[in-house]
Amino acid sequence: MLRSMRSALLPLLLLATAPACTAARVQAPEAPVETAAHALPFVVDDAERALAAAKAQGVPLFVDLWAPWCRPCLAMRANVFTDAALARYGRRFVWLELNTELAQNAAFLEEYPFDVLPTLTVLDPRSGKVLVRSPGSATVTQVAALLESGERAYWGPGAGLEAELARADALLGAGHVAEAVDAYARTLQLAPPDWERRGRALESLLSAQGRAGAHEACARTAQSELARLERSPRWAAVAASGLGCALETKDAGLQGALEARVREALAPPLIELVPEDRSALHQSLVRARRTASDAPGVRAAAEAWLGFLEQEAARAPTAEARAALDSHRVSAAVALGAPERAVAALEQSERDLPGDPNTSTRLAGLYHAQGRLADAIAASGRAVTKVQGPRRLRVLRDRATLLEMAGRRAEAIRTLEEALTYAEDLSRVQVPTRTRDALERQLRALRSEPAPEH
């Protein structure tokens, strides 16, 4: 068997783991639009229609890239886009949501590629230019800030600090990350401590520094700016970003200082955070202790993380709200070395949400971590029956690995052949070359192995 695949399987199975106007504003289109699971008038999976409407009405276009398997995406659809605080933006944009798993959206995704989900973007429909982009999930406050930035870039940024910030946003949106870092840094240097957009500019700078690989600069920026910020959700976000960057460096002192800030963010009096954001803080502490080679510290941090998630799940009002934290619970249980702590919750989610492939996929990973290979194979089989699009390739690939571990080589080969055949019907933007290459390598290796002796 391909023994080297065993250590890589579990992480794969557990993945399923951001001024005055110069022209009169025209209201957003009055034409009927489909609505998804939120109150804002989103056009669903029709980029051409949305772009035409935004151009005709003279407003920017907001785009939400998501996927059905992406729990942060679903959480945003359930909890963020439904928030009344965003209603005031309803007629100031045309709203578009695109399921990245659908072939009909491939042309848009080729023109506007993405790295993570969700990805939130504001486009200028006149030129097709990206005005502002935020990779990753966002709170209501962060979405509002993104919308404000997008409007400033579309209507004209005015002068002074607003113009500096708009310029930095435009550079980042266009993918000029190094130049955006310099522009955001300049904006902060010019800004007084009480500038109302200072916090937003800081978060954008940290994100840009991280993407540019300037990890030490990112960590030191966070450390310096935390002294200026009031204790708030933004303070917690900056602390977490700074620690994440610090852990990419070799500076133990910097790591320790920012780890202390994250611990402070989790300590009373509690900062008001959504459960996913508080979970991310706990996860960063686990990573920090692991980086420090502190096994007891890892266990303690993981226990605190899992305990928090179990409490949140117990008070969740719906099955969907509880399942939104499943990926976090799996990660915390695995970090603790106690995968059995998450099994019952995932089994309940699978019963409550029978059409969701995520629960079956995660169960396969948990069963495998417990040495329950037959149960893992059965769970992966259930996942295959529920999943379509690019995600199906990952599920099939992981199932093939489980089958190969069980000595069922012929079935593993057929599973990989099925994955490659399925990939032929997907666009190249949905199936990157590296994905196809990985499937082909795994298939070649299985075919080259001698048949097991009986």
Strand coverage percent: 5-15%
Structural class: alpha/beta
Question: Percent helix among the residues?
Answer: 55-70%
Widest beta sheet: strand line-up:
1-3-2-4-5
Give the total of beta strands.
5
Radius of gyration: 23 Å
Regions with little confidence, pLDDT below 50 for 5+ residues: 1-37
Mean pLDDT: 87
Sum up the overall morphology in one term: globular
Structural summary, described in words:
60% of the residues lie in helices and 6% in strands. A hairpin with a 4-residue loop joins strand 4 and strand 5 (129-135). It has 21 helices and five strands. Strands 1-3-2-4-5 form a five-stranded mixed beta sheet, with helices on both faces. The longest helix has 21 residues, at 295-315. By secondary structure, the protein is α/β, with parallel strands linked by helices.
How do you describe this structure in short?
The protein is α/β, with parallel strands linked by helices. It has 21 helices and 5 strands.
Helices and strands, with pairings:
Elements: H1 6-13, E1 42-44, H2 47-57, E2 61-66, H3 71-79, E3 94-99, H4 106-111, E4 119-124, E5 129-135, H5 140-155, H6 161-173, H7 177-190, H8 198-211, H9 215-226, H10 233-246, H11 252-266, H12 275-291, H13 295-315, H14 319-323, H15 326-336, H16 340-352, H17 357-369, H18 373-386, H19 390-405, H20 409-423, H21 433-448
Parallel strand pairs: 1-3, 2-3
Antiparallel strand pairs: 2-4, 4-5
List keywords for this structure.
454 residues, alpha/beta, globular, single chain, 60% helix, 6% strand, 21 helices
